[in-house]
C-alpha cells in the first residue's frame, strides 16, 4: 500500500440536550456506547498493512448543533471516512445529525424501553432521507436493559458491515488508477471513464504510455541492486515449465532469447510497482520525478497488442504484483488489471479493500454443463459440480495465492499477507510453473503462470464480482457467491487440453437460488456482463452490496439472502417489494457520492 495515513471511523455519541437532570443522567451510558463501538471496530477490522482500524470519538456527547459542529471539526482534522452515531435516547434530530454529503453515515439507536432511542433513530433517519443524505439505520432485534453495555450480535454484524464499506471508500478517496497504455483489443473496460472514477469513487486517473517501461529499461531507471536480488530469487523460485505451445512451430524463441525475456519480465515488475507507488531509491540516482510515482491504489497494463507483438507479455509482472510475496518477502498485494480493464480492476479493488486478501483476475471463459462433461469425458459430475461449472482462466495474470496451498482450518483459502506462513508462500511458488508464451498470441514472447486452484473436499468459498458501465444508467455491480472446486483428474485433463493448457485454471460453481440469473449455472454465465470477473476469497456479497449502496452503484445480479442485505434506510422509502428496482431508483435519485 501507499505510504499514507489510513482513514478513521468517527463515532458520534448523541444525547438529549435538556439539562437539569435529563442529559446528566444519560452522559455515561451514551459515551459508553461510543466506546463499545470503538472497541468492536478496533478488535475486528484491520487496515491493509495488518494494523487495527482506528476510530475517533467526539470530545463530548452531542446534544445540539454547536457540539455537532465541534465533532465535525475534529473529524476533519483526523481524516474521517465515515461516521457512526450512537444513542440510547431521544435527541434533537436535525440539530445533532452530521450533514456531510460526501461521507457515509450510520446510526445505532439503542433498543431499550427506558428511553426512546428508537424514536430518535427513526426521526433522524427521516431527516437524512429528507435532506438527501442517506444513512444506515441500526436497531437491535431484541430489547436490552438500560445498563446492558453489550452489543447484540445482529447490531455487531451491521456495524462491521457498514464500517468495512466506509473504510473502503476512505481508502480509495483521492488515490489514482494508473493506466499503463490504453485500450487492449477493443475491450470496453479498458476504455477508462474518468467521470466514473471521479464521481463515484472519489479517485483520479493517471496515464503513462507503455513506452515508459522501455525508457526505464534503456536508461536504467530502476534499482540495480534490487534487480540483482530479484533475478536471483526468481531463478530459484519461479521454475520455467515446458514450452507447450511452440514446439514444432516455425516461430519460436531459443533458450538465450527466453532468458533475456525473463530478465525483462522481472524488471517490468519493479518498474510497474515504482510507477504506482514511487521508489525513493530512484531519487538517489538522479531520478527524483520518477521516484514520486503516481499515487495509484490500482493500475492496469494494456499489453495487447502494441506491446505484446514486440515485447514480452505482462503476465509475470501482473501475476507477481497481484501476489503477496516476492524477493523482499511477504507484503500486501497490488491491484493490477490485465488488458487495462479498469472496471475489473475496480472490482478487484472493492474485493480487496473489504477483505485484505489478493484477487484472481480471470476470463469468465466457459460454461460446462453436466451433459457436456459426461459426453466429452465419460464422467458424471457429482457434489458441488453436479449442476455444471464455469471455467475461469486468464493468461497468467492472477494471484499466485490462488493455488489452494494456503489454509484456514485445514481448508484451501486465500489469507491476508500477515497470516501467511513461509511454508505457504513456498507451496504457492512450488505449485506454479511459468510456461513460455504462445507466440501466436504473444509474438514478443514472455511467460504465463500455470497452476490449478485446489478447492478441497468442501470447495473454497469465493465471490466473483464485476462492475459494468451501462449507457444512460452508469455503473452497475453484479456478483455471484459460490465455490472454487476440484474436478476428477480425468475430467480436468480433457477439459484443460481443449483450451489454453499453459494458463492457470479455477473451476467455479455459483450458489443457485432457483430464480433470476441464479436458476442455473448456465444462467449465471449467460447474464454475466463482461468477459472478465474479479474473484475474492470468502462469501462477501453482502459487504459488496453495502459498499455499492454507499457509492450509489446499483446491483443488478446477486445471490445474497435478503436478510443479509444492508443499505441506507432511504432505500425503503423508494420501495420494499422489488428491492432491485428500489436500489436502481435510489442510486439514480441520490446520485454519485462525490458529484
Question: What features would you highlight for this structure?
Answer:
single chain, alpha/beta, 19 helices, 595 residues, 6-stranded antiparallel β-barrel, 22 strands
The shape, in one word, is: globular
Number of E-state strands: 22
The end-to-end span amounts to 26 Å
What proportion strand?
A: 15-25%
Radius of gyration based on Cα positions? 25 Å
User: Helicity, in percent?
Assistant: 25-40%
Helical run tally: 19
- What topology, given as strand order, has the largest sheet? 12-13-20-19-18-21
Give the low-confidence spans. Answer: none
Q: What composes the largest sheet?
A: 6 strands, antiparallel, barrel
- The helix-and-strand class reads alpha/beta
Name the average pLDDT. 96
Please outline the helices and strands.
Layout: E1 8-13, H1 22-44, E2 55-57, H2 65-78, E3 80-87, H3 93-96, E4 105-109, H4 117-131, E5 136-138, H5 153-172, E6 176-180, H6 194-201, E7 204-208, H7 211-219, H8 224-237, H9 255-277, H10 280-284, H11 288-292, E8 296-301, H12 315-322, E9 325-326, E10 329-330, E11 336-338, H13 342-355, E12 360-368, H14 370-377, E13 389-393, E14 407-408, E15 411-412, H15 422-430, E16 433-436, E17 447-450, E18 460-470, E19 474-485, H16 489-497, E20 506-510, H17 521-527, E21 532-537, H18 541-551, E22 555-557, H19 579-590
Your description of this structure?
It is a single chain. The chain is built from 19 helices and 22 strands. The radius of gyration is 25 Å and the shape is globular. The two termini are 26 Å apart. The model has no long low-confidence stretch (mean pLDDT 96).
